[in-house]
């Protein structure tokens, strides 16, 4: 009989690699955020084009989740991870060479597809290797990655040379190293037939998980919609409200939201999923109100205080959603369930932000922010009411 401690020790290098790889994909996804105003100055495009560049990334990511999201259940985890890493490395080369809006959009499309492929397979592999730590890593790594990408790129843009290339060169080197290491991972699933059929766009949600998915959807939508707003329009909002022109603002806004979210996940890691959902649904509206007050009073400190509170709600809500869903899937259903979860998450991440970008021309950025925040507050309150009425769900494999 295998000693559990020996098994944990043997899995630790794989867990570290998978966590760092997931983190690096999300770091690359937010790396362009602090650079958007530099791209605008150099390539002379509008705020509408900016939200388009942001939106094509998320839509391409969704396309990957809908088509190749469960492919690793059939081909095995390692080939799919390798392909995703290779595609993201190619996307970094496109960013390095980007000298037009077309190149920039192409880089974001390729990056989005690679990230969608990676998100599903890495999440499933983490759950395969460790059912205890896997959900925690799946919750923390994306948020830390988004913070690291936004803040790290902002620092490089402010203090290092070649701000539109250096970050991508560093990420390219990281992805090349990951592509070489991935073949040292143990394969955690047995390949099975049905790979071509799995490419048909569909959502694979196990029957036993559907009711829970609908219950966590309002809060999950609100948290990811807030994340999408911060990744696209928040830097412009802060500049409009406060007049700041620092390259660090874009990265700092994303980092403030996501780092506090990651810390909240770590604090709540042993708490029941329902408690995390209720806490997230309570903190998110408070944070949104503070954010709106900070915008209208041109107070950067109040804006960041609201961001920290909303970040706590973001982290608690995300953890509660993941921990509510993960136990409800059998091993061969995990990649499909995580793909469906992230499809809904990234729809919330990109579509509301695209709509906001469109309405800024008619209503103005500040009025659009007010409407956006009000809708998210309503969703969070609805989620709180739903969580208070939740019933326990039978876990897969439980007696």
Automatic annotation (TrEMBL):
Compartments in which it is found: Cell membrane
Domain Major facilitator superfamily (MFS) profile per the UniProt entry, residue ranges: 1-399
Keyword line: Cell membrane, Membrane, Transmembrane, Transmembrane helix, Transport
Listed GO MF terms: transmembrane transporter activity
Alphabetical list of Pfam families matching this protein: MFS_1
Keyword Cell membrane found: yes
PROSITE patterns listed in its UniProt record: MFS
Name used for this protein in its record: MFS transporter
Source species of the chain: Pseudomonas shahriarae
Lineage: Bacteria, Pseudomonadati, Pseudomonadota, Gammaproteobacteria, Pseudomonadales
């Amino acid at each position: 009989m295998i000693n559990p401690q020996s098994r944990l020790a043997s899995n630790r290098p794989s867990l570290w690699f998978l966590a760092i790889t997931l983190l690096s994909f999300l770091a690359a996804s937010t790396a362009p955020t602090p650079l958007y105003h530099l791209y605008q100055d150099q390539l002379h495009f509008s705020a509408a084009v900016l939200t388009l560049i942001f939106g094509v990334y998320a839509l391409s990511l969704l396309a990957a989740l809908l088509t190749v999201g469960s492919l690793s259940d059939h081909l095995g985890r390692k080939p799919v991870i390798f392909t995703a890493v290779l595609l993201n490395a190619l996307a970094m080369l496109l960013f390095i060479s980007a000298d037009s809006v077309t190149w920039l959009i192409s880089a974001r499309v390729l990056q989005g597809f690679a990230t969608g492929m990676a998100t599903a397979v890495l999440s499933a592999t983490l759950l395969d290797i460790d059912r205890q730590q896997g959900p925690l890593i799946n919750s923390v790594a994306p948020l830390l990655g988004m913070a690291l990408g936004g803040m790290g790129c902002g620092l490089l843009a402010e203090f290092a040379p070649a701000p539109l290339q250096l970050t991508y060169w560093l990420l390219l080197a990281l992805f090349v190293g990951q592509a070489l290491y991935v073949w040292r991972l143990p394969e955690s699933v047995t390949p099975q037939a049905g790979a071509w059929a799995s490419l048909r766009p569909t959502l694979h949600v196990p029957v036993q998980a559907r009711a829970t998915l609908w219950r966590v959807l309002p809060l999950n939508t609100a948290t990811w919609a807030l994340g999408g707003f911060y990744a696209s329009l928040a830097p412009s909002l802060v500049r409009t409200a406060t007049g700041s022109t620092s390259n660090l603002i874009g990265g700092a806004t994303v980092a403030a939201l996501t780092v506090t979210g990651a810390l909240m996940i770590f604090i709540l890691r042993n708490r029941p999923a329902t408690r995390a959902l209720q806490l997230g649904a309570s903190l998110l509206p408070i944070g949104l109100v503070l954010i709106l007050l900070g915008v209208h009073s041109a107070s950067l400190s109040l804006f960041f205080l609201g961001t920290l509170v909303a970040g706590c709600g973001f982290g608690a809500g995300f953890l509660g959603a993941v921990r509510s869903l993960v136990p409800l899937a059998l091993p061969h259903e995990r990649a499909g369930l995580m793909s469906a979860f992230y499809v809904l998450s990234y729809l919330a991440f990109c579509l509301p932000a695209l709509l906001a970008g469109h309405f800024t021309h008619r209503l103005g950025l500040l009025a659009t922010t007010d409407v956006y925040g009000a809708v998210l507050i309503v969703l969070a309150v609805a989620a709180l009411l739903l969580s208070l009425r939740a019933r326990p769900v039978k876990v897969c494999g439980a007696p």
